[in-house]
Amino acid sequence: RRRRRRRRRRRRHMSALDTAAGASGEDATASEALDRVVLRYLQRRGYKNAAGVLRTEARVHEHAINDTVSAESFAKGGMSVVHAMGADAAISDHLLYYAEAEADPRGLVDGYGALRDWAQNSLDMYKNELVRVLFPMFAHCFLDLVKKGHLDEARELYTKYHVDHMRLYGDDLAALSALSEPEHVLSDPVARKYLDSKASVTMTNYSFELLVKFLHAQNLMSMLSVLNAHLCVKVEQGEPSPFEDERDGAVVITGRTPEAQRKFNSIKGRWGLVDSCLEIERLRQHKRETKEKEKAAAAKAREEAKKSKKQKKDDDAADGGEEGAEDDMDEDGEQATDAEYPVAMLEDPPNITKGKVPLPTLDYDAHVAALEDLRFRIKLSPETLPTVCFFTFTHAHGLLCCADATADVKHIAGGFADSVVRVWHLAETAPGEERTEPVERDKKSPRTIPMTEFIGHAAPVHQVSFSPCGQFLLTASRDCQVRVWSMELKICLCAYEGHFHPVWDVQWSPFAHYFATACHDRIVRVYAMDKSFPRRMMVGHLSNVDCVAWHPNANYIASGSADRTVRVWDVNDGECVRVFAGHSAGIRSLVFAPDGRTLASAADDGRIHVWDLTKAMCVISLKGHVGPVYSLDYAGGGGLLTSGGADDTVRVWDVSTPPPPAEGVAEDDEASGKVIKRVPLKTFPTKNTPVFKVKFSRRNLCLAMGARRANK
Length: 712
Prior knowledge:
Strand 22 (608-612) and strand 23 (617-622) form a beta hairpin. By secondary structure, the chain is α+β, with helices and mostly antiparallel strands. It has 19 helices and 30 strands. It is 37% helix and 24% strand.
């Protein structure tokens, strides 16, 4: 019996030891398997430092990683590893899935195809928002395939689906189609733009939930990872707008997240006018004149009252007739100096701000002439539309690149593709001719106009700009030079350095002396006339800068780029203070309102947006042009905007914003903060002539210029 008891005790002890050894062995196997899975995931993702630390601390050998969780073993018998890991199996599932999904190039092609079919076949109410994510997903799938060397799959993806995005993203697709090697992705500027910055997309809450649920339901983890890594979705409350089209939600890359951009755009700016502005001086002059007239009228009334008390009725009648004659003479004298029509002035002038940029004073004669013109500036409104005077350059289609006119309409300049700048002097007579009578309005025979050729550039001239006083002319050319010419001496005064790429635009500041350039190298430069090198260089655009515009107080510069953004820069320190994204094509023209509160921008797709600088948002969207809009300008006094474009039309728009409603009054659609959409008030068609320039004179005469095409 004693022997049997001893044997039983030995058996129980041995079984307990075996059980403990088995449990510890299973724990060690599970821990080692998890370490190997995590280590392989870190290696796949490129985290070399983290992988090295884990390998050292867990003592995992390199050969054991591939042997334990290779793709073949996981597909055939790898589930034993997951069984050994117990509760950590879910982690291994995700890590192994991502590792294998990244290795399969077909997952990106098929995943994008499934997402595209679902988005395009969804309900019309949500379709416009869901298709917004397609192009950035397409671009990143294509770049990922090229970067990893899967060129056949990348070409298949591009061939099957690039047609869907040609309308809005043709330029980017042209750049992506040229990528054929992984090295190209690292050097191409368009590819770097998408890889270095997240694309911002705006969607309503319900549309975003539909998108995420679809990706999870179809197990499209590759698409979900692209969405999470490369897109920044701004989710808004409410229902999708039924009036939006595909262009309203075009993807724009600004280099910032929506939250960072909102914080950035909340910077307080100095959007008022400076004390020396012509508009402010004209307002003060008008107030002084009004007070003087009121004092004169009051004094005359007091004199009449005194005479009526002292004189008799019969004498009063006689004196009254004489005084009536004197009044008529006074009125006739006033009519000689005052306009007989409503004069345009800033009805709601902004606050006067103190600029930080030192501003020069205009020439005295030019200053007096400008104030005299503002005295007779006609007031325009939606009921009183402007008169358009069109200057047609004949036999110049394909040669004329740009045009401009002085504010007093005495000189017209054109920049041509043969590198010559030609200036016509409208107020002068040809040599040997004397103008004794005014030119007849309906005269059919041509009149000889003196013309001067400025020769100095070596490539096509892309922009010409007269100074506010009309004494100087700026020209920008593809030869990487900016030149300033004297209208009095008719020679080149200086050629400014600093550009190594073509210069697309150049504009004077409202007070002259300073001017800004837009260059192909994505940089905005600010020059002063007394130095040949730039004073400021504004860097931030992701593509070439095509146009610039000065704020009326000369403290800010707006720039438009092919990256579809409008940026506002502080001239004092060169910092960017506003970034506006909303266009679906490259920006072609810009102009600030006379009161400095709003900024209008036009794009290559024909859309015009009006931005509120204080609210940092689009307040008005104008639709009517077909094709690029080459030029914009505000009427003196504000309220009306004119535009000219490639569709051979000059269009007039109402850009007045409704006043805020009174307390207790319900807001309508135009005052509720939504974007106001309007159509043109009037369209002026031309005779087969694209409009290169529109500009208001100081007296609110609308000038337009273009080169007529030959009849087919």
